[in-house]
Write a structure and sequence with these properties.
The chain is α+β, with helices and mostly antiparallel strands and about 150 residues long. The chain is built from four helices and three strands; from the N terminus they run ααβββαα.
């Protein structure tokens, strides 16, 4: 459901932008869109829109914690989890299309000292989640700054 909301915000921004939406009207349009839909998908969110490397909209909505009544803040950091997978896949496929890498390239080509344990792990394995690499969340290790 939350992914749908992300897509809604991104799609709406693209739609607003491609239909001649004036940049000065963007904050009001996004405010209206987000406040009208947020309650159905999440208790809160932070939205940032940048154009040509410049932040043109940054705002927090709703609550970070309903139990503690903590308002969402624009500087809060979130685990974004799987949200980035499709963007990473598109970037990799563009590199493949340009002939810069291949689906059959071993990841050791890019991370030279990655332990293969005698198995070849390809770019395709990474994209299709068939590499056999253990999910970092099930490992018993401490990751600095991962106390979210």
């Amino acid at each position: 459901m939350l992914k749908s909301f992300y897509c809604l915000v991104v799609s709406s921004f693209v739609l607003l932008n491609t239909h001649g939406q004036n940049q000065k009207d963007l904050p009001d349009s996004l405010d209206e869109l987000i406040t009208s839909r947020l309650a159905t998908v999440a208790p809160g969110c932070v939205v940032l829109v940048a154009r040509h490397g410049n932040v043109i909209y940054k705002k927090a909505f709703g609550k970070a914690s309903l139990e503690l009544n903590v308002p969402m803040q624009p500087a809060m950091i979130f685990r974004i989890g799987s949200v980035t997978k499709q963007y990473t896949a598109v970037a990799i496929l563009q590199l493949i299309e340009q002939g810069k890498i291949s689906l059959q390239d071993s990841i050791q080509k890019f991370v030279h000292d990655y332990p293969s344990k005698g198995h070849t792990i390809t770019v395709e394995n990474l994209l299709t989640h068939t590499s056999g690499i253990t999910d970092y969340e099930v490992l018993d290790i401490h990751i600095p700054n991962a106390n979210m």
